[in-house]
């Protein structure tokens, strides 16, 4: 599973990436291999004759610049020496590329603090969070949220509104999101630094254009959300819409509980249930982006009707409504009633404890099949499931021990989300940054470069 280890090196374990000090840097090996491939092509007389030198040099430069910006974005401030070690680039190449980033206002370099060790300390490079920002938006059944995320992952501003469940039609949601976006984009200089918009929605999304084919818990079908929000926001930047569980997985891999893992299953639980799947470090989204709808796996033929039109879907047994039903609470109670159930379970209330144990049993049943199919290194319990985790972990583990195949079962770890309810929103910010991270040179080379557009 995952990328192979260097010859003679032991295979990485869960402790290697999830420990308090260790971290698997999944991008470094690929970057080094790609860099060596490019250098080999440049120095090979046969292949060197087949490509114009200028084109080849520009390709190398853009790839190297992307590698550096990604390392700084994901890992925070790093010294030049650390960047050399992480990317495999030469010191002279690092120096020149950092010079480009600082000239464009995307990074700043500061002297390192002397540690009393021999040699001159390497300067430390950090990204300038407010020079390039992303607008992140999230649509849930009970709430809407917006955040302005700076390059490097710093949240500069955020706003959330809790909404009644009867206010889920598209038009008022779009209007409320525009108001939230305007709130976090103040002052106006933040608009000048905006590089993209990412939107997380609890629905089945076509990634090419942000078309929501179905969002059963919102009551949506065939909603051109990308077009509607693009027009309403009126921002001249790329706009991407994705499923909230997919974006929760992205955030947890980059900044949360699954940091450094390449095989990840993220479970998102609220009114509905979603899944974000990472395979070999890449999201598994299917042909059009509809993959990962694990909440609609049929698990109980004798179960109840689901909002999707089927019967016995996994979310009808493990979602918030199922928990409320088992505990004898009002089905429209939302998070307030769920919190009351958790408080009652802590106090030993039999009805609350029983409701959570039965939910954990059904979670284990569905998860056993997913572990057998996907063979993940880690399963992250997000959203509602993060709050349930202390109460259901033992039950889920027990069901997995009995129902999952032994080989994949022994390799998987279960962990609560490190980012909590904010994971999908932070993932929307990461999605919005992708064009910049993938090709920083494109942004640096724009006529209205960020340094000129944003007041100091």
- The assigned CATH architecture of the largest domain is 2-Layer Sandwich
Helix percent reads: 40-55%
Question: What share of the residues does DSSP label as strand, in percent?
Answer: 15-25%
CATH superfamily of the largest domain: ATPase, nucleotide binding domain
Secondary-structure content class: alpha/beta
**Average pLDDT value?**
85
Largest sheet: 5 strands, mixed
Describe the structure.
This protein is α/β, with parallel strands linked by helices and 456 residues long. It has 3 domains: 14-127, Orthogonal Bundle (Arc Repressor Mutant, subunit A); 130-247 and 423-453, ATPase, nucleotide binding domain (Nucleotidyltransferase, domain 5, 2-Layer Sandwich), CATH 3.30.420; 260-418, ATPase, nucleotide binding domain (Nucleotidyltransferase, domain 5), CATH 3.30.420. 46% of the residues lie in helices and 18% in strands. The chain has 19 helices and 16 strands. It has helices at 14-18, 26-43, 45-48, 53-75, 80-87, 91-103, 170-184, 189-192, 225-233, 244-255, 315-318, 320-327, 334-346, 350-374, 384-403, 406-411, 423-438, 440-444, 450-453; strands at residues 78-79, 107-110, 124-127, 133-139, 143-150, 155-162, 194-201, 204-206, 211-215, 220-223, 239-243, 264-269, 273-279, 282-283, 378-383, 413-416. A 5-stranded mixed sheet has the order 6-5-4-7-11, sandwiched between helices. Strands 14-13-12-15-16 form a 5-stranded mixed sheet. A hairpin with a 3-residue loop joins strand 4 (133-139) and strand 5 (143-150). Helix 12 runs antiparallel to helix 14 (350-374). The chain starts with 13 loop residues before the first helix and ends with a helix. The model is unreliable at 1-28, 34-55 and 447-456 (pLDDT under 50).
